Amino acid sequence: MMPTSRTDPSITFSMLRTVLPLLLAVLAFAAPLSAQSNPHTDPLNLTPEVREAHVHFYNLDYEGALSRFEAVQRANPQNPMATNYVLFTLVFRELYHQDLLDTTYYAHDSFLTSKRDVPVPQATRDRIEHLTSQAIEQADRQIKADPNNANAWFARGYAKGMHASFITLVDHSFISAARQGLGSRQDSEQALRIDPDYADAKMAVGIQQFAVASLPRILRIMIGITGVTGNKEKGLDLLRECAAKGVVNPIECRTALSLFLRHDARYPEALAVQHGLAAEYPHDYLFRLEEANLTKDKGDGPGAIAAYKRVLEDARKPGYFTDPRLQMTYFGLADTQRGQNLIADAAQNYLNAAAQPKCSDWLKRRAQLNAGQMFDLLHQRDKAIEQYKEASAGGGDQSQADTARKYLKTPYTGA
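Given the sequence above, the corresponding structure tokens read:
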């Protein structure tokens, strides 16, 4: 089992407030693999079996991807990348089921202090912990046998980065996650020292270069004492290089580029990257959703509303998306309509989000709270009270309860 901690010293927490909103959710996608020979990657990554599994993953068919990656693992029981593929599929299937792959959640610092309890089934949690340890142990054995094995260094860093994402989002184990994230960068840097053309290893380094450079100056100085430095443009350049030449994670790097450009309010550039992903993978529900989210963040309310509605229209087509979690689209649409002062439409779409059969209890109660606020603005107090009662009901997620009880006493006015 990988150790976790809930300790959050002020300096580390301040660092994470900047780093994590940039870091998380960029690992939700794996790259299509070239059929051509590539000496700068594990040959396993180029096999038809791995490529076929990724096709299913891109369509968010996690069950189809998982069964295929498990077959790859059975055929390669000592290969840490085979273990990693099963690990990342399990991690992101669970995050998707928990409504944690909508990047708007990470655009604000509030997710770091959220009271949300993420109810991951114990069997799933245990398997993720086991696979993380297994992949690291397999890589350790390969490194011990050959310290110049770039594939093993990359695979070990990949496992650490995957586990860091999981424990941050699910457990808010910030210190352990930060430690593993640094370990991922260090392993990737070692892979690059061995093979400077190992493009996939540039992702972890590029992410931390950008993230550290985004910290307040005093924190950059303090972190720099430890030898960890950052440069935004260098980080972006490393991500671009990985996107152009990587085998395992070029799509992840394009996703990271989009997120980082968004962080710096470089919305036209971010949208260009995201539009390319959505056009290349039109049946990837998350890519399409993120395009709409970015349009909203850019300040183009009407354009964002149209983009969300196109996602909903395509979702009505049989088989167009695999298991689309439409609560995320309805919630984003409602938020945008709220910003455009389309209060009645926003109220209805918050209700639509809460009504989705696979909506997590956490997102459902957020939607109910927001619906109540819209009904208060519409002077429909009875409906508002009904939604506040739902959002503050006992049992389940309680992250919205205090705010909902406040508005049960005093109507929301928009202030």
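Confidence is low (pLDDT under 50) at residues 1-35, 219-226. Try to locate this feature in the token string yourself.
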